[in-house]
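Database export, one record per block. Field names are fixed; values are copied verbatim from the stored entry.
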Amino acid sequence: MRTRLISKLLMIVFFGTITACQQEEKKDAATSISTDVINVPSTASGEPATPGSAPLMVFNEALHDFGTITQGEKVTYSFVFKNTGGSDLVISSAQGSCGCTVPSYPKEPIKAGQESKIDILFNSEGKSGLVQKTVTLVTNCNPSTKILTISATIIVPEEE
């Protein structure tokens, strides 16, 4: 009797597992997206990009070290870039990794061949030691994200 019960339970588990796997395969097939849909770069106008026509954001540098600064100092830096692509470059957002890192970016399209800049304000209030922060840009380039990095060594002033 006990063996019979165990056999039935094993069969239920076995068939339940097979059914669940089949449903998972059907779900994956139904929700998969062709890479043709994902990998279609477009220009700022929304038209499909032909080779060389997409915008391309090229920075002089993507990392800036402020060196040694005193805690509480506010420092700024401008990351200069050029659109070396064949159409307008649009920056849809710029987000600092924390509230102490505030980016300012052009809201208008940057024409092909045009230079512009991303200004970063870093507030070292409450920070100490070696600090590294990032700003993530979202654009109409391929890839669509670009990360800029700032760093500083922050010293705490001695109290008198």
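Remark 1: Strands lie at 57-59, 63-70, 74-83, 91-96, 101-104, 115-123, 129-139, 145-155.
Remark 2: The radius of gyration is 26 Å.
End of record.
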